[in-house]
Amino acid sequence: MAFTPLLEDLIDALRCLPGVGQKSAQRMAFQLLERGREGGWALSRTLAAALEKIGRCETCQNFSETPQCPLCQDASRETDIMCVVESPADVMAIEQARDYRGQYFVLMGHLSPIDGIGPEEIGVDKLLQRVTREGTRELIIATNPTVEGETTAHYIADRLADNGVLITRLAQGIPVGGELGYIDGSTLVHAFTGRKPLAG
Amino acid sequence: MAFTPLLEDLIDALRCLPGVGQKSAQRMAFQLLERGREGGWALSRTLAAALEKIGRCETCQNFSETPQCPLCQDASRETDIMCVVESPADVMAIEQARDYRGQYFVLMGHLSPIDGIGPEEIGVDKLLQRVTREGTRELIIATNPTVEGETTAHYIADRLADNGVLITRLAQGIPVGGELGYIDGSTLVHAFTGRKPLAG
Fold first, then answer.
1. Which of A85, B14, B108, B171 could form a disulfide with A90 if both were Cys (CB 3.0 to 4.6 A apart)?
2. Cα–Cα distance between B12 and B28 in angstroms, integer?
3. Interface predicted TM-score of the whole assembly (ipTM), two decimals
4. Which stretches of the protein fold into C4-type zinc fingers, per the record (chains A, B) (predicted)?
5. Half-sphere exposure of residue B105, counting CA atoms within 13 Å on the CB side?
6. B49 and A9: CB-CB below 8 Å?
7. Pick from A7, A27, A108: which is nearest to B54 by CB?
8. Are residue A106 and residue A86 in the same domain, yes or no?
9. What is the spatial distance between Cα A143 and Cα A87, in angstroms, rounded to a whole number?
10. Is there a single domain that holds both residue A45 and residue A63?
11. Contact flag A63-B33 (C-beta cutoff 8 Å)
12. What pLDDT, on the 0 to 100 scale, is given for residue B36?
């Protein structure tokens, strides 16, 4: 005994979403069929449209509906500084802070040999070519401060060692509004190592 | 600064799924566009097909692709006993236990006035008509042993009080394989109250 075949198919299809197992997929399918039919139709249509029209920006690899994304097309941005991030969400967070005005390169992940993700999958060669072509002066490697993010940062830095570009990493320390008592040891070590004179 | 418009639409559409907030929707959208395009297309197609073809069984209200579901069509099942459950998943669990061979009625929820779910939304009138029409001898109200499930059970029992049908609830007690030390007080009270002679 199983559910009706199409319902089984729908539950299977929902399991392709990250973090969704059998029980959550079942719950989602029931809700879509019971009280969320309108939302279900919208999801089916929007998903098809997004899969059809959203590709990668030729220049920075970010998601884009046009061959070049709006940020890469923006002529008012600085061209000699480039920030390397792991995900489109990172670009959005940095843009919302409204401080950085340079170029981006989105790796869409980090090096993870166990998952079959090597330098080619994250576009390291493309990044290197772009740095050389655009005469980038500074490359800020803003991958996440995790083991994988650090590995990826060091790999890219190694590959660019002879290029003459200045390679930087984001400062590590206590976040604004953080409470010392709740901050982990490694972050505190970074904060002490990177301490600055109060006047400066 | 936001994501590309179609990506924003996709994130919004994914939020109609239960338990999915902004960040999970974002993660799902990224994964679908990045490494799960095939799964994404399958989801879009299957969802549309399911929304188009899956309706409710005229007799028991369960999800069905035909006017009557296979269980209601099965002439070999007993017709004088009916089991009322909250969800299609409950029907599946009971069928997998392979003991009960009677009819079903699926409420697709429970009474919840705060969410606007009253007797009409769960089909109580339809259940009453069916009990009368089919001359049901016993109605097992197998709603969940939660506050809402118990309320729903009592409401249905009240409405059927003058009908002459035997109304039963599933036995409550310790589950098979359970350890006494880990079982909550109310379950233990039920287990003691419902104790049986060892020979019987």
1. A85
2. 11
3. 0.81
4. 57-72
5. 28
6. yes
7. A7
8. yes
9. 9
10. no
11. yes
12. 81
Residues A48 and A97 in one domain: no
The reported pLDDT for the residue numbered A87 is 92
Q: Which residues of B touch A26 (CB under 8 A)?
A: 89
For the stretch A120-141, pLDDT in tens is 999 999 999 999 999 999 999 9
| Percentage of residues in chain A having pLDDT higher than 70 | 98
What domain count does chain A have? Answer: 3
Structure-derived torsion over alpha carbons of residues A88, A89, A90, A94, reported in degrees to the nearest 10: 110
Cα(A179)–Cα(A30) distance, integer angstroms: 43
Residues of chain B contacting A34 with CB distance shorter than 8 Å? 108-109
Q: CB contact, 8 Å: B112 with chain A?
A: no
Q: Is residue B133 in some structural domain?
A: yes
> A50, B29: Cβ pair inside 8 Å?
yes
CATH assignment at residue A121: 3.40.1360.10
pLDDT band of A55, cuts 50, 70, 90: very high
pLDDT computed for residue A178 by the predictor? 82
Give the alpha-carbon dihedral of A91, A94, A98, A104, to 10 degrees: -50
A103 touches chain B (CB under 8 A): no
pLDDT in tens, B155-192: 999 999 888 899 999 988 888 888 888 888 888 888 88
What is the identity of the amino acid at A118? G
Burial of residue B26 (CB within 10 Å: 0-12, 13-18, 19+) is: buried
Please give the pLDDT value at position B130.
95
Any chain B CB within 8 A of the CB of A17? yes
| Contact criterion met (CB below 8 Å) for B133 and B125 | no
Q: Is residue B196 in a domain?
A: no
For A105-133, what is the mean pLDDT?
94
Could you tell me if B2 lies within 8 Å of chain A, comparing CB atoms?
Answer: yes
Tens of pLDDT, residue by residue over B13-62, are: 999 999 899 999 999 999 999 878 899 999 999 999 999 999 999 999 99
Residues in chain B closer than 8 A to A24 (CB atoms): 19
Pair B43, B109 in one domain: no
Same domain, A44 and A88: no
Range of the domain at A28: 5-53
Query: Which of A10, A20, A27, A46 is the best mutation test for B, with the most CBs of B within 10 A?
Result: A46
- Please answer yes or no on whether B17 and A33 come within 8 Å at the CB atom: no
Quickly tell me which residue has 């399918």 as its tokens.
A29
